[in-house]
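worker-03 picked up job from queue 'complexes'. Input manifest follows; two sequence lines, order preserved.
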Amino acid sequence: MAFEGLADRLQSTLQRIRGKGKVTEADVKEMMREVRLALLEADVNFRVVKDFIKKVTERAVGQEVLKSLTPGQQVVKVVHDELTTLLGGEQSKLAVGTKPPTVIMMVGLQGAGKTTTTGKLANHLRKKLNRQPLLVAADIYRPAAIQQLETLGKQLSLPVFSMGDQVSPVEIATKALEKAKAEHYDYVIIDTAGRLHIDEVLMEELQQVKEIANPHEILLVVDSMTGQDAVNVAESFNEKLGVTGVVLTKLDGDTRGGAALSIKAVTNLPIKFAGMGEKMDALEPFHPDRMSSRILGMGDVLTLIEKAQTTVDEEKAKELQKKMRDMSFTFDDFLEQMGQVRNLGPLDQLLGMMPGAGKMKGLKNVSIDEKQISHVEAIIKSMTKLEREQPEIISASRKRRIANGSGRTVQEVNRLIKQFEDMKKMMKQMSGMMKGKKKGGFKFPFM
Amino acid sequence: MSFLKRLKEKFTAQTDAVTEKFKTGLEKTRNSFSTKVNDLVKRYRKVDEEFFEELEEILISADVGVHTVMELIDQLKDIARTRNIQDTMELKSAISETLAAMLRKDDEEGALALQNGQMTVILVVGVNGVGKTTTIGKLAHQLKQQGKSVLLAAGDTFRAGAIDQLEVWGERAGVDVIKHQEGADPAAVIFDSVKAAKSRGVDVLLCDTAGRLQNKVNLMNELEKVKRVIEREVPGAPHEVLLVVDATTGQNAMSQAKIFSQATNVTGLVLTKLDGTAKGGIVLGIRHELDIPVKFVGLGEKIDDLQAFDPEQFVYGLFMNMEEEEAE
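worker-03 finished. Artifact:
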C-alpha cells in the first residue's frame, strides 16, 4: 500500500496535537521536524522537503492555525492542502491529436517498466476509451524486449509493430507511423529502450525519434521506488526531450513514493498514470488530491467507488437488493457477487483504499488469499442448479459429491453452506434496517 | 547509425582494466558527490552546526538514509570534539574514514562462496526491473571466463519475454539454459534445472527468478518454495542468494533487503546501474543495519560490465577528487 509509511508518520505526529486545544509555535516546530524526517525517509528530494516545510510552517504558525478552534485539525488541513498542491492540483488527462493517430512515446531508465506500461496503456485506450492503438516495439537493445511486447500484444489481442532488432528506432517509428496512418489507428504507442539520462548517444537517438514521430505525448516512466536521483532523471529527460507527463510505476509496492512529490515539485510535469500491479488492467489515472488524502491516511474512497461503477452493473445491483430483501438470494447470486468484487482488482489493494484500513492493526499486514476465493468458487460450481437455488436440500451424500467435484473437503463445503446461511440472515437484518432510508445507495452487499 | 555501433560494442570483448572501468563507471557519482563536499569545505571555514547541517543534506541526497546519516553526523561531531578539529579541511579526511569504516568491516566475504569439488547453486532475487536477468548473464560470462562450467535456470516464468531474454544472455555467454513454458511453476523449473545440473556435473547453477515486490506475500511464499526445492535437492545449497538492487532506488531498498532476507536469507547484494548519476548510498545503511555485504556492482550494459565490489575502491572513487586536491 503506497505511501502508508508517510501516512503513519504524519498521523502519529498529528495525533499528539489533535487532542490539544491550542497549538503553540513550539508545537508546530516540533511537528515540522517530524514531518521533515518522514518526508526524507519517504525519498522526497531534500530540496523539495525544505520548501514544503517552509511553506507549511508559515501557514501553520500564521493566523490560520493559532486562531482556529480546532488547531490540530487545521494543521492536518494545511499539510494536506500543501501536499495536494505539491502533487499537482488537478488531474491531468492524455493529450489527443487533432488528426489521428495520436502518438505517444514512452521513455525512461532501464527497468522502470516502460514495456509493461505500454501494454497497460494500450489496454486502457482499448477497454476504457474504445480506441484502436498500435504498439511499436522500438527497444532494439535489451535482449527479448521485442518478444516481451509481442507477448503482451498477444495477451491483449492488440497489434504490435516490429521490425526486429537490426533496424534503427528512427526507421521503426517512421514505418510504424506510415502503417498507422494507412490503417487508421487512433493511437500509436512507441516503446523505446531504457537508457541513462546521461547517455548522450542514446538521448540523441530519442531526439531523432521525437523529430520523426512528432509525438503528442512523451511519457516519462518512473519507478516509484526511485530515491533522491528521481529529480535528476526527470530534469534531464525533460530538458532533452520536453516530456509531457509522468507515469509512476510499481506503486503497489510498499514504497513511500516520495519520488512522486519530488518530480512534480521540481519539473512541474503532471503525473498522468500510476501502475498498481502486474496485471494488464492495473493502470490507474493519477489523482493528486486522492493521493494526498492517502498520504494522510484518509483512504482513497473515490477510486474505489469509481472502480465499482465500472465493474458493477447498476441493474444487477438493484435486482440483487430486491433479492436480499425477500430472502431469495441464492448461491448463483453469491457467485456473481464474488465475480464482481474480484473484478474490482486484487483484494488487498481494495483494502488499502478503504479509509482507516491502514490503521487497523490486524489488517495492516494481512494478505487476502485469492486462492481461497477460487476454492469457494469451485465448490459452488460443483453444485447442481437446484442445490444452488435451494441449499437446504444438500444432504450428506450431496455434500460428498460436491466435495469430490470441487477437490475440496466435506468440512469446507459445510463451512461454506453455514457461512452462506449466516450471510442470508445478516442480509435480512440489514435490508430491514435500510427500509425507509434512501434506496439505491447500497453498492456493496458482499463486502 | 549509433545503434550498430552499440551492437558492435556489445559483442566485442572489452579489454579495459578493471580499475579504469570502475573509475569511469563511478565518474558521475564521484564528481557530484565529492564536488559537493569540496564546495562545502571551502565555503565553511569553521566546523559548526550549519556545516554539519549541510553535510547531512549532501549525504541524504546520496540516498544514504536519514538514520544512517544522523549516526554518521553524530560520529563526526564526536571526532571533531575529541580531536578538537575546527578547520573544515581537517575534518575532510575524517569524513571519508568514517564512511569507509562503515562499509569495510571484516571483509572475507567479498567473493562468491564457490564450492570446491561440488556444485555451487546461486539464487538471484529482487524486485521488478532491477536487472536480475542481465546480472545473471554477466555473472555467467564471468564464471565461464574463470573456466567454470555454468548452467542457467529460467525461473522467471511470469514476465513476458523473460525466458527469451535469458536465452539471449545464455548464447552470449556460451552456456545452456534450462527452461519451461511461460506460466509454468518456477519451483518445477528450478527442480528440473538442479537435476540437469547434477547429471551434467556443472560447477555453477545460476537460478533466475521473477521480479516481485517484497510486500506481495504470495509471491514471497513462492520464492521460499523455490529455495526449499534447492535445499532439498542439494544439501547446503543455495550457497549464495544474491539480492539485486537498483542504485537509483531510495529507502525502499532497505525494506527489500529486510524482507527478501526473511524469505531467502540473502548472502550478498548486487548493486546495478551505478553508471548513472544515482549514488547508491543506501548500501551503507543496508551494510550497517542488516550487515549484508555488496558483492558486485553493475556498471553498464555490456557483458563484462559487472565488477566485484571493492569497498576501498568504492569509497576511494567517491573521494578521489577530494584526496587529489588535498595533495596539491
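worker-03 released lock.
Chain B touches chain A through 53 residues (CB under 8 Å).
The longest helix of chain B spans residues 18-43.
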